[in-house]
Amino acid sequence: MQGTRTAGAAAAEGGGVGSPAAEESVDPFVAFHINKGLVKKYMNSLLIGELSPEQPSFEPTKNKELTDEFRELRATVERMGLMKANHVFFLLYLLHILLLDVAAWLTLRVFGTSFVPFLVCAVLLSAVQAQAGWLQHDFGHLSVFSTSTWNHLLHHFVIGHLKGAPASWWNHMHFQHHAKPNCFRKDPDINMHPFFFALGKILSVELGKQKKKYMPYNHQHKYFFLIGPPALLPLYFQWYIFYFVIQRKKWVDLAWMITFYIRIFLTYVPLLGVKGLLGLFFMVRFLESNWFVWVTQMNHIPMHIDYDQNVDWVSTQLQATCNVHKSAFNDWFSGHLNFQIEHHLFPTMPRHNYHKVAPLVQSLCAKHGIAYQSKPLFSAFADIVHSLKESGQLWLDAYLHQ
Q1: With contact defined as beta carbons under 8 Å apart, do 118 and 124 qualify?
Q2: Where are the transmembrane segments (predicted)?
Q3: Quick one: DSSP state of residue 185?
Q4: What is the DSSP letter of 320?
Q5: Which of 7, 156, 226, 313 is 20 to 30 A from 286 (CA-CA)?
Q6: Checking phi first, is residue 135 left (phi over 0); if not, alpha (psi -120 to 50) or beta?
Q7: Beta-carbon count within 10 A of 310 CB
Q8: Are 185 and 305 contacting, i.e. CB atoms less than 8 angstroms apart?
Q9: pLDDT < 50: residue spans in the chain
Q10: CA distances from 377 to 242, 290, 296, 325 (A)
Q11: How far apart are CA 74 and CA 67, in angstroms?
Q12: Using CB atoms within 10 A of its CB, is residue 233 exposed (0-12), middle (13-18) or buried (19+)?
């Protein structure tokens, strides 16, 4: 090895795209960071070296032509201004969340605490929690402001004060998912394999051949409705987030989370009492959990799931994601994550621009013979169940016949 630069540092210095050292790392580096100069200061401490000119700069498992054309596409997208956010859009989005929050409280305050107002309040608060979840996702990806500081501050406010969850936990989990989506043991979003579900055709067959049976996987498309959507938030995330912040000593996150619980306590205990508030809280988490799981899994679970095969960045993202058709409701309901393909290719792009770049991504996929899947919302939901049923059957066949 000659020289003293890492690939990431080379990319940060501006000459990276064409330089050998940066060839393999430039795409995720560019995708995740909005301030390359700031990150460069931290990258300098990780200096390793630079490939000599005669050494190959691209591994044979990776599609160089696709990668080069995607980089041209990204340059075009930046020239079009699609990486710049419309701040009015996000301000109105935040205001609509706050209005729903107030409306939930007013429902009980004005109409009393009988069953119907209680249920309406729970539905409104579930919408608040789901929509705040999509909004914190925007700030967490640094896609709203041009500086990390403002994105991080609003991220803390939305996920901490409006949702009661830690920003550091989200960052820790979510960026691993984006770096290696649907790659077993690298994407934490598929850690339910193999202890709860057998995921993906390849991994399910492998599990069957190894005679492993942690659950009756051939019935997983049925018990998914019991331990998937309704249980993830109230029975797991709700408790794990506190363990996470205390175990890692994330005291700033904990302080933000406490403000959420103080606010909920002060506003709802006078109306419902402590028991009533607990009932409302867990009903909201139950409804939000169903909303969250169906939306987040519809784009990934039906797609390719396997060990990391060391393919290029673009191929990694495309084989793990699919879209749901655009509509005003689908955009709102999913927080624009119905454009999961575009989001994974351009994670710092403001969500209101996904539909503008989508035709360009479709053209790139068509040119290289890559499937670009977009489907109706309920078809996407059904595909989750269908893929679980299919992988469960593959597991059973391998389990019985190997």
Answers
A1: no
A2: 88-108, 114-135, 223-246, 258-284
A3: T
A4: T
A5: 156
A6: alpha
A7: 12
A8: no
A9: 1-23
A10: 33, 15, 12, 7
A11: 10
A12: buried
Beta bridge partners of 2: 50
User: What Rg do the C-alpha atoms of the chain give, in angstroms?
Assistant: 23
Which residue, 295, 401, 318, is CA-closest to 366? Answer: 318
CA dist 127 and 40 (Å) reads 40
Structure tokens at 377: 């919302």
Q: Which helix (H) or strand (E) holds 323?
A: strand 323-324
Residue 272 host element (H or E): helix 251-297
**The pair of three-digit structure tokens given for residue 111, joined into one six-digit string:** 């109409």
Q: Compute the distance between CA of residue 394 and CA of residue 220 in angstroms, rounded to an integer.
A: 12
Q: Which residue has the tokens 């939306």?
A: 295
Which residues, 6+ apart, have CB-to-CB distance to 195 below 8 Å? 214, 215
Structure tokens at 307: 């060990």
* Dihedral of alpha carbons 86, 146, 33, 142, sign: negative
Tokens 């139950």 appear where? Answer: 286
> In this structure, which amino acid lies at residue 393?
Q
Q: To 10 degrees, what angle do helices 115-140 and 251-297 make?
A: 100
Question: Both tokens of residue 177?
Answer: 């998912």
- CA-CA distance, 300 to 380, in Å (whole number)? 10
Cβ-based neighbour number of residue 193 at 10 Å: 19
Cβ within 8 Å of residue 19, ≥6 positions away: 10, 50, 57
DSSP-based three-state secondary structure for 2 = strand
Which amino acid would we find at residue 155?
A: H
And the tokens for 126? 């579930």
Q: How far is it, in rounded angstroms, from Cα 73 to Cα 356?
A: 13
> What residues form DSSP beta bridges with 50?
2
Cα dihedral sign, 49-50-55-59 = positive
Q: Tell me which residue of 266, 201, 215 sits closest to 398, measured CA to CA.
A: 201
**129/317 Cα distance (integer angstroms):** 28
Q: How far apart (Å, rounded) are the C-alpha atoms in residues 208 and 230?
A: 28
- What is the pTM assigned to this prediction? 0.88
* Pairing assessment for the beta strands 374-375 and 323-324 based on DSSP bridges: parallel
- Coil/strand/helix, residue 183: strand
